């Protein structure tokens, strides 16, 4: 599935990261953004939504989720 634009952002304060969330998870999207897994709820709305997102870490060309290993239980993120 190819991207059709940014639908939301994921913000992770502890690692000072804000990333765009795009529709789909093809290689083009995941090189520059986080992808929304097709078939799951859209990451918009209210509590109780079960959206699934996917993203890379450790890419040479983009930081993305590289520092996610610094998170511990209780750290928060926002969409």
Automatic annotation (TrEMBL):
The keyword Hydrolase applies. Signal peptide: none annotated. It holds the Pfam family Sortase. GO terms for molecular function: hydrolase activity. It comes from the Bacteria. Keywords: Hydrolase. SUPFAM superfamilies: Sortase (SSF63817). InterPro entries: Sortase, Sortase_dom-sf. This is Sortase family protein. It comes from Streptococcus lutetiensis.
